[in-house]
Design a protein that fits this description.
This protein has four helices and no strands. With 94 residues, it is mostly helical. It is elongated, with a radius of gyration of 16 Å.
């Protein structure tokens, strides 16, 4: 569980923050909002369920899957967002 929290909760979100800082046109999109909400809803569900399963609660296993799917779909939205917007020309307002 510790490695999941570290990699998905800290490292991945730190990298995401850097992506949105370096590519600000990616930050103000519906894909960014979708990524944010899916990741931040899925991760606590996954972590709490993983802890419960580690403590011997076998009924928590489907919730681990649901939380994992939410996180993966959120990261997929991040990927699509970067691929769509990373090469887009900057608009300069006069």
């Amino acid at each position: 569980m510790h490695s999941h929290v570290l990699l998905l909760g800290w490292a991945t979100l730190a990298i995401t923050g850097v992506v949105y800082l370096v590519l600000p046109r990616c930050a103000d999109t519906p894909l960014a909002a979708g990524h944010f909400w899916l990741h931040n809803l899925g991760l606590p569900v996954m972590m709490a369920s993983l802890a419960a399963e580690a403590l011997g609660e076998p009924r928590a296993e489907p919730l681990i899957g649901i939380g994992s799917i939410l996180v993966v779909v959120g990261l997929g939205l991040l990927t699509v967002n970067v691929l769509r917007n990373a090469g887009a020309p900057d608009t300069v307002e006069s």
